[in-house]
Amino acid sequence: MNKIKKLFKKWDIGLLAGIGLTVLGVILMILPGSSLTTVCLILGIGTAIKGFTKLFSYIKAKRTSAERNSELISAILILLAAFVLIAHPEKLLSVIPVLIGIGVLVYGISGIFKRGGLFSKATAIITIIVGAGIIGSPFAFAEAVTSILGVALIIVGVIVIINARNTLTLQIEPPTDDGYTEVEFTDVE
Fold first, then answer.
1. pLDDT of residue 151
2. Neighbours of 44 (CB within 10 A)
3. Residues 172, 175, 180, 182: is their CA dihedral positive or negative?
4. Of 139, 152, 68, 50, which is closest to residue 98 (Cα–Cα)?
5. DSSP 8-class letter at 178
6. 116: alpha, beta or left, given left = phi > 0 and alpha = psi -120 to 50?
7. 179: left (phi over 0), alpha (psi -120 to 50) or beta
8. How far apart are CA 127 and CA 133, in angstroms?
9. What is the block-wise mean pLDDT of the chain (189 residues), using blocks of 10 residues?
10. What are the sequence ranges of the domains in the chain?
11. Of 164, 165, 159, 167, whose CA–CA distance to 22 is shortest?
């Protein structure tokens, strides 16, 4: 136990979080496809826990029948979502990018019919091409977004690591007799 306390004295939680974010970013960047499946499974497990919590709340509730019924319907829908996330993550991962692609495509088509100059029309055409590309290759889109997220997590992780070394600790003293609270900032070493 003393070794754990010494570890936390030497390493800030912020530093560990930064390292964790950086490692997660590298994993997402290197293995975007399998990372997405893992994320779906983790979300599925969390969703299942929420669904079972709602179901338990339904069983234990002493409310009116309308409130109980809404709790049961909510629990069933959440558990169905969890089932899809856990049992068929690859199907879900192919549907979401297609829906995004359809949205981008519709946005681009509507941009053509809006008033605007040459730049607006060119942007609308590019948007249509991007939307069609997303629909045509949803897994490549999902993997590209995951890789971009990985790069973002690496950047955030490095920033958190840097900030962990430069963080100020906020020390708040109890209120004095005049009702004011004194706040003092000290460097973390």
1. 92
2. 20
3. negative
4. 139
5. T
6. left
7. left
8. 10
9. 52 74 86 79 86 84 72 88 86 80 88 84 90 86 85 90 65 58 53
10. 12-187
11. 159
